[in-house]
Amino acid sequence: MRVERGCLSADIRIGCCGDPTVTNRPAPLPGQGTPQTVYAVTECIQNRLMKHFEGTGLHWGLRRILQRLWMADGLSQAELARVTRASEASTSNMLKHLVSGGWVERRRDQFDYRISRVYLSEKAISLRGAIEAECAVIDTELRDALEDGEAEHLNVLLHAAWEILGREAPDAESDKGIGIYDQPSPPGVL
User: Fold this and answer.
1) Which run of H or of E encompasses 116?
2) Tell me: the pLDDT tens digits for 26-56?
3) What are the residue boundaries of the structural domains of the chain, listed by start?
4) What does the DSSP 8-state code read for residue 8?
5) Which of 3, 17, 62, 174, CA to CA, is 20 to 30 A from 51?
């Protein structure tokens, strides 16, 4: 495997993930376990994606709600609370912030008018497009740095790890009923 640039730079202590200002992120060291290495790579990817959130006023919890809606738009407040593992009161407050910021809108369920569903606005969909474009750039960088077939093999291994670790989540089974875990999801996004 050749490793030349970006998050896979051999001297990541000089600057993490293409950001020369971030110097306090340790590189994965030889002999460290897989979780530490995956965590270091995940941090690199998150640092690259976070630049798209600068100036939006979206803190971690709000980004987590948007991430879930990007995976399955039209969830109810109760479903969002469950899949983000936040209380319904916290979810309600976060949704008020997202609605007032123009990131999401609420609409009555067409079959049960007691339920309102949360949908992404054009603003949130546009942000998702920027995030997906950055993910494509990261994917290209990884493919360029790896030998033929290694990127596909890495992807298979990461998805297998995601499947194994996802089964251990306390309420993963209850989440399956609303389609969140029915779709493939890249590990480590947001």
Assistant:
1) strand 116-120
2) 566 667 788 888 888 888 888 888 888 887 8
3) 6-54+124-176, 60-121
4) G
5) 3
